[in-house]
Design brief:
GO terms for molecular function: FAD binding; quinone binding; sulfide:quinone oxidoreductase activity. Belongs to the SQRD family. It comes from Hesseltinella vesiculosa. One of its GO terms (biological process) is phytochelatin biosynthetic process. By secondary structure, the chain is α/β, with parallel strands linked by helices. It has three domains: 174 residues, FAD/NAD(P)-binding domain (3-Layer(bba) Sandwich); 148 residues, FAD/NAD(P)-binding domain (3-Layer(bba) Sandwich); 74 residues, no CATH class. Helix content is 28%, strand content 25%. The protein is built from eleven helices and 21 strands. The strands form six sheets. Strands 1, 2, 5, 6, 7, 8 and 19 form a seven-stranded mixed sheet that branches. A five-stranded parallel sheet has the order 10-17-11-12-13. Helix 1 runs parallel beside helix 9. The longest helix has 20 residues. The structure holds flavin-adenine dinucleotide and ubiquinone-1. Ubiquinone-1 binds next to helix 9, strand 20 and helix 10.
Length: 415
């Protein structure tokens, strides 16, 4: 059995932002990163890929090229967590021991929870920006669309980037206008939620925009089945249990999601299956040498890479204090998250807020509810560099310092 000072599970933005800093601090052979995939994906780009505004290749890098040089990459999958023995088990049966564990394994997509989805995906107008293969189909299907029903769904589960299903709806609606098929098209957005966006501060603006663009909204409406042969989708209304069938010519699915099974089945899970951490310190509520961040954590904010920027800074401060045996006042996470709401090829509403309080936490000294082409440029061209060159190597821990520095420019009438 190998033993490490710190073991990190997963090399998405959560795992890399932490392992880069810790491996630099502790030196060789001290930090292991367990990650099966040989590719790392910048998933926030996938909305732009689906909308035809970015090439898929810009969202991928070889895992070896983003792995911290001082960390040991164990290219395998964790199958079991054994926190009572400070060990994890790999798919090859080996065990890896740790003093401290950081879990950052992301969210699991449960394609099977919609009947017929797996078979239908990627063919005959059925697509999803939520997978590596199908995201490449979205734009070709939008361009091939000749009119009829364009249907978009939002699942009845937690999901990563809760704005993503809405963003692709707006981008597709605009594309149908540009392609001259909009007047023969019903754009239908079926969401399991009771409103378009969880935070009303931005949601009200978004709803007004959806109305202006003629997007039909159906609330509490959950996709339960796809009949690809007949191009028909089945929905359940979760307010009155009514079942409706809807013919589609284009269908974008945001699939049901949930905690990874190996976490759900472990002692680290809360009742819902997420890694049960303190929402301020990111330390596990029962096992003091375990931390988690990102999509697999129980942190009650919306699951985004933007949230991970803030989470990673807090986690590292607290874990480094543990490693050094220092008694410091714990760093605390405020629930910061962001949803760059792309509403057109050159239009974006940069929602930034605390998922804990619902209060806006805006970086720039303007009312960010305004549609902005500058925000679109920042999100499309600048934030990707901040991700690859700042978040992954541990130096970018979110915009809170920028926000504080710019505060003096903020008009008094803004929140
Ligand atoms: P992930 O990035 O999913 O990484 C988890 C890693 O763990 C993976 O590499 C995986 O291979 C590995 N892993 C899984 N299981 C195991 C195991 N058993 N053992 C070892 N390793 C394992 N966020 C934003 O901030 N802004 C956006 O605009 C935005 N848009 C998005 C649009 C789309 C279409 C999607 C899909 C996501 C979007 N996101 C956005 C969300 C963002 O991509 C995620 O929140 C972020 O990637 C989560 O990072 P993570 O490290 O927690 O998990
Ligand atoms: C951010 O830092 C980040 O990660 C690098 C994102 O994820 C892709 C974001 O979406 C956002 C909004 C931020 C915040 C950065 C700024 C400059 C507001």
């Amino acid at each position: 059995n190998k033993n490490f000072r710190v073991v990190v599970v997963g090399a998405g933005p959560g795992g890399l932002s932490v392992s880069s800093t810790l491996s630099e601090l502790l030196g060789k052979d001290q930090v292991a990163v367990i990650e099966p995939s040989d590719k790392h994906y910048y998933q926030p780009l996938w909305t732009y890929v689906g909308g035809g505004l970015k090439d898929f290749n810009e969202s991928v890098k070889p895992m070896g090229s983003v792995m911290p040089s001082e960390a040991e990459w164990i290219q395998d999958r964790v199958t079991k967590l054994d926190p009572d023995n400070n060990q994890v088990e790999l798919s090859n049966g080996e065990r890896v021991g740790y003093d401290y564990l950081v879990v950052a394994a992301g969210i699991q997509i449960n394609w099977d929870q919609v009947k017929g989805l797996k078979e239908a995906l990627g063919k005959d107008g059925v697509t999803s920006n939520y997978s590596v293969d199908s995201v490449k189909k979205t734009y070709p299907f939008i361009q091939d669309f000749k009119g009829g029903n364009a249907v978009f769904t939002f699942p009845n589960t937690p999901l990563k980037c809760p704005g993503a299903p809405t963003k692709i709806t707006f981008l597709a609606e605009e594309a149908f206008r540009l392609n001259g098929v909009r007047d023969k098209t019903n754009v239908i957005y079926n969401t399991s939620l009771g409103k378009i966006f969880g935070v009303d501060h931005y949601g009200k603006v978004l709803q007004r925009l959806a109305d202006e663009r003629g997007i039909q909204m159906n609330f509490q409406t959950e996709l339960i089945e796809i009949d690809a042969a007949n191009k028909e989708a089945t929905f359940r209304n979760n307010a009155n249990q009514a079942i409706t069938k809807q013919p589609y010519d284009f269908l974008h699915v945001a699939p049901p999601q949930g905690p990874p099974s190996f976490i759900k089945e472990s002692k680290l899970a809360d009742a819902a299956g997420w890694v049960d951490v303190n929402k301020e310190t990111l330390r596990h509520n029962k096992y003091a040498n375990v931390y988690a961040l990102g999509d697999c954590s129980s942190l009650p904010t919306s699951k985004t890479a933007a949230a991970i920027t803030g989470e990673s800074g807090v986690l590292k401060t607290n874990l480094i204090a543990d490693l050094k045996g220092e008694k410091i006042e714990a760093a605390t996470y405020d629930g910061y998250t962001s949803c760059p709401l792309i509403v057109g090829r050159q239009q974006l509403i940069l929602a930034e807020f605390s998922g804990y309080t619902g209060q806006p936490l805006e970086t720039f000294p303007v009312d960010q509810r305004q549609i902005s082409n500058v925000s679109q440029y920042i999100n499309k061209e600048i934030i990707p560099s901040l991700y690859w060159g700042g978040l992954l190597n541990g130096t970018w821990t979110g915009p809170s310092k920028v926000r504080n520095a710019l505060k003096c420019f903020r008009p008094a009438n803004l929140a």
